[in-house]
Design a protein that fits this description.
There is one protein chain. With 316 residues, the protein is of the alpha/beta class. Helices cover 36% and strands 15% of the residues. It contains 12 helices and 12 strands. The longest helix has 19 residues. 44% of the residues are buried. It binds 1,4-dihydronicotinamide adenine dinucleotide and 3-hydroxypyruvic acid (3PY). 3-hydroxypyruvic acid binds next to loops. Belongs to the D-isomer specific 2-hydroxyacid dehydrogenase family. Pfam families: 2-Hacid_dh, 2-Hacid_dh_C.
Length: 316
Amino acid sequence: MTKLLIARPAPPEVHEALQGFDVTYREDSAPLSEDEMQDALRDYDGVLATLGDRFTADVFGKVGMPRCKMLANFGVGYNHIDVDAAKAAGLQVSNTPGAVTDATADIAMTLMLMAARRAGEGERLVRSGQWSGWEPSQLLGMHLTGKTVGIVGMGRIGQAVARRCHYGFSMDVKYFSRSAKSVAYPAEHISDLKQLVAAVDVVVIAVPGGDDTQHLINADVLAAMQPHAFLINIARGNIVEEAALIEALQAGTIGGAGLDVYEFEPEVPQALRDLDNVVLLPHLGTSSREVRVDMWMMAVENLKAGVAGETPPNLV
Ligand SMILES: NC(=O)C1=CN([C@@H]2O[C@H](COP(=O)(O)OP(=O)(O)OC[C@H]3O[C@@H](n4cnc5c(N)ncnc54)[C@H](O)[C@@H]3O)[C@@H](O)[C@H]2O)C=CC1
Ligand SMILES: O=C(O)C(=O)CO
């Protein structure tokens, strides 16, 4: 019988869809340890894994030619998996594109509004019991409507953010991408990153993580931003040089930031937590019940196809 490992607690829909397979449901929400990953590759035909499960070249190297032929990732970002090493070991790797797009774009807008309108600070003020009532100069933020957004990485999520900004907030859209995109609303392609960030009020990062984008947003890029501008990161923590961001926020050389992801996630530096001009969310991009079920079902379809020897619908 085909043996499957589901590496995180799964909803009933998954149990239903995998009837007929010999399935091990891991009830631990923590990432797989290196030993668990090696055992998974040796003992199962297919593994459904997710963010935090670091399937490195070393893990594949220690196993050699594994029994496992299919690694279905729950999530669109797969920078925690060495896909080349997986392929060399005979595995197919898949992800869950599309299912995550709108929810993650919504969290980008949440961060944008919270940072620009100082909502986190306001919430802390009310909770502290120190709020002494409405007054005209209290917690003045930046009005988002009509401002300019700069999207770094104009893929599915980048475009979903751009649509929200254009249609919902009458914002001008500029973007940095390797090629120009054809979209239904006005959007200016800028092929120089510093030029883009210098020209906008809000920068939104939506490129994939991994070696290619490591510290794409470094001290130089942050220095090119306008002093009132906000940096929003809903993509991966390693894209932003976190130490440089902390310096910029402390010095007030940018207006503020909104972060859903962190360089050394789940570690969030105390220096960041001490700052008022940054909104910090715990990687909430896709955390809605409906979206998570869609992601599960997509990952399950990929897993089933892969262990049947077929090409999964969302092969990486
Ligand atoms: N915070 C969260 O919970 C979530 C975060 N994510 C992250 O968002 C990322 C983007 O997801 P999608 O939009 O679905 O991916 P996508 O592949 O549709 O879009 C990424 C875009 O970035 C562009 N790109 C890649 N490298 C680039 C570079 N060096 N410079 C400029 N552009 C570059 C690609 O050409 C593509 O257009 C994922 O890889 C994932 O890491 C995704 C879902 C949820
Ligand atoms: O899909 C992803 O890449 C995430 O970060 C979590 O949904």
